[in-house]
Write a structure and sequence with these properties.
The complex is a heterodimer of chains A (415) and B (348).
Chain A lengths: L9 H15 L1 H6 L28 H11 L6 E7 H9 L10 E8 L7 H12 L4 E4 L14 H6 L4 E3 L3 H10 L5 E7 L4 H14 L4 E7 L2 H10 L8 E4 L2 H6 L5 H5 L5 E3 L4 H17 L4 E3 L11 H10 E3 L2 E4 L3 E4 L3 E3 L8 H5 L14 H5 L31 H9 L4
Chain B lengths: L26 H15 L19 E9 L5 E2 L2 E2 H14 L3 E13 L4 H18 L3 E9 L7 E11 L15 E4 L5 H10 L16 H9 L4 E5 L5 H13 L2 E5 L7 H10 L13 E4 L4 H9 L8 E7 L6 E4 L5 E3 L13
Parallel strand pairs in B: 4-5, 9-12
Antiparallel strand pairs in B: 1-6, 2-3, 4-6, 7-10, 7-11, 8-10, 9-11, 12-13
The chains are: A alpha/beta (415), B alpha+beta (348).
Chain lengths: 415, 348
C-alpha cells in the first residue's frame, strides 16, 4: 500500500479540484469574491515527478484574464472514461462531488463483462451443461445474465461444473488434475487479460495438455473507441480518459488517431483517484487550449509503445476476428481476437462445435445507449426497479465497473 | 466362568476417522461423545448425562440466539471453526445486551473426517468457552456420508440474561445519534480468504475472532443510553449498517477516514478487488447511542482491550430512502449499498 496511498491523498485531490473548477469555469470563479484562492497557481498537485506536461502558468491576474478569454461562459466538458476501472474509482471515491457542474463524466464500455453479449455467455453455459466440461471463469462473469433466465452462477447451482479462478494458471492446474475431464477457460477481457491467456495456451501446447481449451472472447479497446466515435450523429464527446492497465500493454500510440483524426484529446490515466482528477485537469486544459493530443498521466506504467514482449506473445497466439458482436455497440469489425490456426486444438468453439448464436437484449434495457454514452443509467426505465444489482437484466448492472451498477451502488442519491 | 468387565478400546485419535457408526446411536457414538466431546467440555450440566441440561433459575429476561458455522479452511490464523462457533453465538447473545450463560453445540460430521482434527476443534471450543466463562451444557452429533458435508459443521445456541432496564434493538436508531465501531474491519474475512486462496502477505492477516460480552458489559456499565448493538459479521460493516438503517427507517452518514482498516487487510482487498466494508468480522461491534453520550461511550470502549481502536465513524441522519452514505477520503460522497449477491473480485 506504500505506493498506493499517496495517490489517494484527499488534500491533493482538493488542490486539483480547485484547479479544475477555476479553469473549467473561470467566469463562475471570476464572479466569486475570491477568484484566486490560496494555492491556485500551485502545480504541486501530484506526488510523482511526471508533471512536465503541465505548462507553467501566468501570474494569477493575467492567468485569470487569459482563461476568461479562452473559455466561454457556458462551456461544458463531456469526458468519457473508457474503462470500468475508472468508473469504479470515480464512483467509489465520489469524485463527481469534486468537479464543477460544467465537467460531466460519461461512463464508457470498458467493462469486460458489460460488453459480453448474451450469446457468448450462452455458449459458455452450453459447454458446461451440454458438454459436461469444467468451465473456469473470472469472478464477475458468473453473474452476467444469459438466455432462459440463466447465468453461469445459476447454471452452477443447477449442477454445471463452473469454477471461479483468479488466474489462467488455476485453469491449467485444474486441467492437469482432471485429465479425464475437459476443462474450458472462458477467456474474456480487454488487452490486459489477453497476455495471460496467451501464456496459458502456449503452456498447454508445450505440455501437451489435450483436455484444456479456451472460449476466446478477448476484445480490443481501440476498436471500441472507434465504434463510439464513428456512430453517426453519435455522442458529443470532448475527450477521453484513456485506459490504465490496457495501456500498459498496448502503449499510448494506438490512441493517436483519436486525437489526430477525430480531434478528441486523450489522457491516459491510472486507476487511483488522484490519477483520474489529474487527467481531468489535463483534458480541461487541452480543451481550453484547443489542442487534441494523446497525453500520458500514467507515466509510472505506460510508455508510447507499451509492453512489446506481451504484444508479440499475443500476436503469436491470436489473430484479429473479422467481426465481433459487443453488447451495446453491436457488431464491430476487427474488434476481437481468436486463436491462430496453429493453436486451433485449444479453441473450444471448434473443439465442441458450439456456434455463437446472437440473442437480442431485453427490449426495455438501455445498456446499448448507456455503453455508448448517449444515456445515463437513471434515464433507463427499468433502472433500479426491474433491473438491480441483485437481479441484473442488462450487463451494465452486473459488474461494479458497469455504469448502472456503479450508479446504483454508489451514486443513487444523485438525481 | 467369570463375566468379563465391559471393555472398549479407547478411540484412536491419532489415526482414526469418523465413520457412520459414530452417528448411529450405538456404542461407538457414546464413546466418541464421552472421550472426545464430554472430556473436552466437562462441566456439571453436561455430566448430568441426560437428553437435555437442567439449569438453575435465572432472574431477568432471557435472550436466545443460534448460529451455524461452515467455514473453509476449518483452521485459520487466529482461530478455527471451534472457537468461531463459540464466539459467534456468544456475540449474538451479547449484542442483545445480555450476559451469555450457556451454550449448546450440535455437530454434523462427514464420514472420513480425521478424529485428530475433531479433537483439535473440540479442545479449541472448550478453551474458548472456558475463557468466556460460558459452558457448553448440551449437544448433539450426527454423521453424514462422505461427500455430503464439508468436514464438520457446527451449530451453537446460546442463552443469556439481560440486565434490568437494558433494551437494545436495531429499530431504535434516531437521527443525530452517533455510530461507533470497536476497531479495524475486514480482518476475519481476509484471514480466511487469503488462506483459502493461498495468498501470503508480508504481515500475516489474523482473524479477529473474539467473544465480545466482556466489552458489552463494560459499555453497559458506563451507563450511557445505548440504542443498538450489532456485530458486523457476514456482509461486513456495510451490510450491518444497512440492516439497522432499514429497521430504524433512517439514513446514515459515515466518514471513511474514521474507519480503521489494517494495512495487510487493505492490501489483500486491493489485490483481490474487494471492499473491506463488506468483509466479515468476528470480534467487532457497532454501537449506536445518543449524541451526548458518544464520547463517554467511546472512552469506555477504548478502555477495554478488545476496542482499543474504537472510533466514532458517523451519525444517523433523516433519510426517506434509508441510504447509508460515506464521505470518502477524497471528500466525495457515495452510497454504501447492500451487498449484491456475493462479493466477487473484479476482472481488471
Amino acid at each position: 500500500m506504500k505506493y498506493v496511498d499517496e495517490f489517494r491523498n484527499g488534500e491533493l485531490a482538493k488542490n486539483i479540484a480547485a484547479n479544475i473548477a477555476r479553469e473549467a469555469n473561470p467566469h463562475g470563479q471570476a464572479r466569486s469574491p475570491h477568484p484566486n484562492p490560496d494555492g491556485a497557481t500551485s502545480h504541486s498537485t501530484k506526488p510523482s515527478q511526471n508533471d512536465g506536461k503541465v505548462a507553467g502558468y501566468l501570474p494569477a491576474g493575467e492567468e485569470a484574464n487569459e482563461l476568461l478569454r479562452k473559455v466561454s461562459d457556458n462551456r461544458t466538458y463531456r469526458l468519457m472514461e473508457f474503462c470500468g476501472g475508472h468508473t469504479h474509482a470515480i464512483s467509489r471515491y465520489g469524485l463527481v462531488d469534486l468537479l464543477p457542474d460544467s465537467v460531466r463524466l460519461i461512463h464508457g464500455p470498458g467493462c469486460p463483462v458489460c460488453v459480453l453479449p448474451i450469446g457468448r455467455v450462452d455458449q459458455a453455459i452450453r459447454l458446461a451443461t451440454d458438454h459436461g466440461v469444467i468451465l473456469c471463469t473470472y469472478a464477475d462473469t458468473l453473474r452476467v445474465p444469459a438466455s432462459d433466465n440463466l447465468s453461469l452462477m445459476r447454471a452452477k447451482a443447477g449442477g454445471a461444473d463452473v469454477r471461479m479462478i483468479y488466474s489462467t494458471q488455476d485453469a491449467l492446474k485444474i486441467a492437469r488434475e482432471n485429465p479425464q475431464r475437459e476443462v474450458v477457460f472462458l477467456a474474456i477481457g480487454f488487452e490486459t487479460t489477453t497476455p495471460p491467456t496467451a501464456v496459458a495456451v502456449k503452456q498447454a501446447a508445450f505440455e501437451g495438455l489435450k483436455n484444456f481449451s479456451i472460449l476466446c472472447d478477448h476484445v480490443l479497446t481501440p476498436a471500441a473507441m472507434h465504434a463510439i466515435l464513428a456512430v453517426e450523429g453519435g455522442v458529443a464527446l470532448d475527450g477521453f480518459i484513456g485506459p490504465a492497465h490496457v495501456s500498459t500493454v498496448i502503449g499510448s500510440k494506438p490512441y493517436e488517431p483519436f486525437a489526430d483524426d477525430y480531434g478528441k484529446p486523450v489522457v491516459i490515466a491510472g486507476f487511483e483517484p488522484l490519477d483520474v482528477m489529474q487527467a481531468i485537469l489535463m483534458l480541461v486544459r487541452q480543451i481550453n487550449d484547443g489542442r487534441a493530443v494523446v497525453e500520458n498521466e500514467f507515466t509510472r506504467a505506460v510508455t508510447r509503445y507499451g509492453n512489446l514482449k506481451a504484444q508479440s506473445l499475443v500476436a503469436e497466439v491470436f489473430e484479429v476476428r473479422d467481426t465481433f458482436e459487443w453488447r451495446g455497440l453491436g457488431s464491430v469489425p476487427d474488434s476481437a481476437l481468436k486463436l491462430r490456426p496453429a493453436f486451433a486444438a485449444f479453441d473450444a468453439e471448434l473443439k465442441f462445435g458450439v456456434d455463437y448464436v446472437a440473442v437480442p437484449d431485453n427490449k426495455a434495457c438501455e445498456c446499448a445507449a448507456i455503453l455508448r454514452g448517449q444515456k445515463r443509467p437513471q434515464e433507463c426505465k427499468i433502472f433500479g426497479t426491474v433491473c438491480t444489482p441483485d437481479n441484473p437484466i442488462g450487463s451494465c448492472m452486473v459488474s461494479s465497473e458497469g455504469a448502472c451498477a456503479a450508479h446504483y451502488s454508489y451514486g443513487r442519491f444523485r438525481v | 466362568m467369570t463375566v468379563k468387565p465391559s471393555y472398549s478400546r479407547p478411540l484412536d485419535i491419532k489415526h482414526g476417522r469418523v465413520d457412520m457408526s459414530h452417528g448411529s446411536g450405538g456404542r461407538a457414538m457414546a464413546q466418541l461423545i464421552t472421550e472426545l466431546f464430554a472430556a473436552a467440555f466437562d462441566n456439571e450440566y453436561l455430566s448430568q448425562g441426560n437428553d437435555g441440561a437442567l439449569l438453575p433459575n435465572v432472574a431477568g429476561r432471557l435472550v436466545m440466539a443460534t448460529d451455524s458455522h461452515v467455514v473453509s479452511p476449518l483452521f485459520f490464523a487466529g482461530g478455527d471453526i471451534g472457537s468461531l462457533s463459540v464466539h459467534g453465538t456468544i456475540n449474538d447473545v451479547a449484542m442483545m445486551g445480555a450476559q451469555p450463560l450457556y451454550l449448546s453445540a450440535a455437530f454434523i460430521l462427514e464420514e472420513g473426517f480425521p478424529l485428530a482434527d475433531l479433537k483439535r476443534i473440540a479442545l479449541s471450543m472448550a478453551r474458548a468457552s472456558k475463557e468466556a466463562g460460558v459452558p457448553i451444557v448440551t449437544g448433539d452429533t450426527k454423521v453424514v456420508e462422505r461427500g455430503k458435508g464439508d468436514g464438520v459443521f457446527i451449530t451453537t445456541t446460546g442463552v443469556g440474561v439481560v440486565r434490568e432496564g437494558v433494551v437494545l434493538s436495531g429499530d431504535q436508531a434516531q437521527p443525530c445519534d452517533k455510530i461507533l465501531l470497536s476497531g479495524s474491519i475486514g480482518d476475519h474475512g481476509m484471514a480466511i480468504l487469503s488462506q483459502r486462496e493461498g495468498l501470503s502477505f508480508s504481515a500475516p492477516i489474523v482473524s479477529d475472532s473474539a467473544a465480545l460480552h466482556g466489552l458489552v458489559a463494560a459499555m453497559l456499565d458506563s451507563k450511557v443510553k445505548l440504542r443498538v448493538l450489532r456485530d458486523p459479521t457476514r456482509g461486513g460493516l456495510a451490510t450491518t449498517l444497512n440492516e439497522i438503517a432499514k429497521q430504524s427507517g433512517v439514513g446514515m452518514m459515515l466518514q471513511e477516514s474514521a474507519i480503521v482498516v489494517n494495512q495487510p487487510v487493505e492490501a489483500a482487498c486491493e489485490f483481490l478487488g474487494l471492499d473491506p466494508l463488506y468483509v466479515a468480522n468476528e470480534g467487532k461491534l457497532v454501537a449506536i447511542c445518543a449524541p451526548e453520550d458518544a464520547q463517554r461511550l467511546l472512552d469506555a470502549m477504548r478502555a477495554h482491550p478488545l476496542a482499543a481502536n474504537a472510533s466514532i465513524i458517523g451519525e444517523v441522519v433523516e433519510d426517506a430512502h434509508g441510504f447509508v452514505q460515506l464521505t470518502t477520503r477524497m471528500g466525495g460522497r457515495r452510497v454504501v449499498d447492500w451487498l449484491a449477491g456475493e462479493q466477487l473480485p473484479r476482472i481488471c
